[in-house]
Design a protein that fits this description.
By secondary structure, this protein is mostly helical. Helices cover 46% and strands 2% of the residues. It contains 18 helices and six strands. The strands form three sheets. Strands 1-2 form a two-stranded antiparallel sheet. The termini are far apart. The N terminus is likely disordered.
């Protein structure tokens, strides 16, 4: 009986406390003194960019490089990407991480547009980085949620999928707006910017260079070709002062990692954080990628120009020397690992901890964009000059003191030593009977310039068919390069109506369905 009375007393005291000042004390005791209910634009930028770039680098390593014959697994099991045997779950990682971090990139624009925190430069950087991330999404999957995407906090958890043509048109608008906003030069917090450390002129160059990449990607579509080609000419020829672009590697958009083997320090390379050393060095290099560099005596794979007998790209010899693995080989051949990338645990020069692997977009790619545009007669200038500049830019990125420009004698000697490197003005732009054409020359070198850059090698191959890759007899999918990734399976259950509408508009949810800019 006494216990029951005590319980009643405790309940009455609790009621009194909750209805009086005890409530205030409870709330004060249980309020996080560190956590914030609001944030600022400068606090969102670095985490989002690091997370997206980390996703890009890991998927470049284990997906793009396999498709594009940079690396080749020694594996006879099913589901091998280098054989074009693509499983549906390959779609999930990039979709989830890109959309997750796009929320922060979009919020930067919202915050920087409010009167109390207005900042035109953060608005512009938001638009540029949104375009970067959304372009990766649409170029990977085709039609994707765009205009209604990342609005879950407003109650829209089933966004419509938008047509790629409409997405591209809006991305162009975003980049136009960003270029104008950056003209004001509104300062940002330099430490919030892991790419350019607050240098707004370089952000402007990156935005306009990204614009060129996307204009070129859409240039094969008859319904927009005249408009996008005219815009390319305006940026390059007519109004270059209003549209500055990347011109050298000081303009390259990248995040510089800390260069250590720490997996917990700020700005540690994703290759160190997410890939075990044994797996990093256990990935053989493809014969297509390595063979051409070796045949050209390329300085990037010359042991004498590296460190302690290891070339600049951190490659070690295999049992048979500087030999790669042919991609698409048939199972059962009993191949063994040949040349491979070094890992941190081997105490040799390695890309696993290299500071320079965090590339978003480099100036060499821009030079090859201009080379293609000049070869097609869209802009003035020499396709040959742009071609050589792109080659020199690509080498200079990894070896900045060895080759500084295309006028260096070392570079001229390198080119003159191989007839396959010399620009041939007599070649046709394209050829259906030979692998010798101006487009092939440009895109072989562009392929190396985009080494480690997310999915750009794959995107450009899908757009152009270059470089011409050898087809192994063990390829699946009828030997056809996949044209896109499947939509994540969870979308079918969480957003079924929009998913069905997307499939009805674009075509079957299949790796061989062409996205808008691939279709004739």
């Amino acid at each position: 009986m006494k216990n029951n009375k005590n319980k009643v007393i405790y309940i009455l005291l609790a009621i009194i406390c909750l209805s009086s000042s005890c409530t205030k004390g409870f709330i004060e005791e249980n309020t996080d003194p560190v956590g914030q209910r609001s944030t600022q634009a400068n606090q969102l930028l670095a985490p989002a960019l690091v997370n997206i770039l980390s996703t890009n680098m890991i998927r470049n390593w284990n997906f793009n490089n396999q498709l594009m014959q940079v690396t080749v697994e020694i594996n006879d099991s099913e589901g091998r990407i280098f054989r074009y045997d693509i499983r549906r779950n390959q779609a999930d990682n990039t979709w989830n991480n890109w959309y997750l971090n796009l929320t922060d990139l979009k919020n930067i624009y919202t915050i920087a547009s409010q009167p109390e925190s207005s900042n035109k430069s953060y608005q512009a950087i938001s638009l540029i980085t949104q375009t970067w991330a959304y372009s990766l999404l649409t170029d990977t999957y085709g039609d994707v949620p765009y205009f209604e995407a990342n609005n879950g906090k407003d109650g829209n958890v089933q966004p419509a999928f938008d047509r790629q043509q409409d997405i591209y048109a809006d991305m162009f608008k975003k980049l136009e707006e960003a270029n104008k906003l950056l003209q004001d030069g509104t300062q940002i917090v330099a430490t919030s910017d892991p790419v350019f450390q607050g240098d707004l002129a370089r952000w402007r160059r990156f935005g306009n260079s990204l614009y060129l990449r996307l204009l070129l990607r859409a240039s094969g579509k008859s319904e927009v070709a005249s408009t996008v080609i005219a815009k390319i000419k305006e940026i390059v020829d007519t109004n270059p002062r209003e549209y500055p672009i990347m011109e050298n590697n000081t303009h390259t958009a990248r995040i510089l990692w800390n260069g250590t083997n720490s997996s917990t320090a700020v700005f540690s390379s994703p290759y160190m954080v997410n890939i075990r050393p044994v797996d990093f060095r256990g990935m053989p290099i493809g014969d297509f990628f390595l063979g051409k560099l070796v045949s050209w005596d390329d300085p990037r794979v010359d042991p004498d120009l590296g460190t302690a007998g290891v070339p600049r790209l951190g490659i070690d010899r295999g049992p048979d020397g500087w030999v790669g693995i042919p991609s698409g080989y048939e199972p059962g051949l009993g191949l063994t690992t040949q040349a491979h990338f070094n890992s941190d645990s081997e105490s040799k020069l390695t890309l696993q901890t290299d500071k320079n692997t965090g590339i978003i977009m480099n100036c060499a790619e821009v030079s090859f964009i201009l080379a293609e545009a000049a070869a097609k007669g869209w802009i003035s200038g020499s396709a040959e000059s742009y071609y050589y500049k792109g080659m020199a830019d690509a080498i200079n990125y990894w070896m900045p003191t060895y080759i500084t420009s295309s006028t260096d004698q070392k570079f001229k000697d390198y080119v003159n030593a191989s007839s396959n490197l010399k620009w041939d003005a007599d070649l046709p732009l394209e050829s259906s009977t030979s692998n010798k054409s101006k487009m092939e020359m440009i895109h072989v070198q562009k392929y190396y310039a985009m080494f480690l850059v997310d999915f750009q090698q794959w995107f450009e191959y899908r757009r152009t068919g270059h470089p011409i890759l050898p087809k192994g007899t063990g390829l699946a999918n009828g030997g056809k390069m996949p044209s896109r990734l499947y939509y994540p399976q969870i979308i079918q259950s969480t957003n079924p109506t929009s998913y069905k509408n997307a499939v009805a508009a674009q075509g079957p949810d299949d790796i061989n369905t062409l996205v808008w800019w691939q279709r004739p």
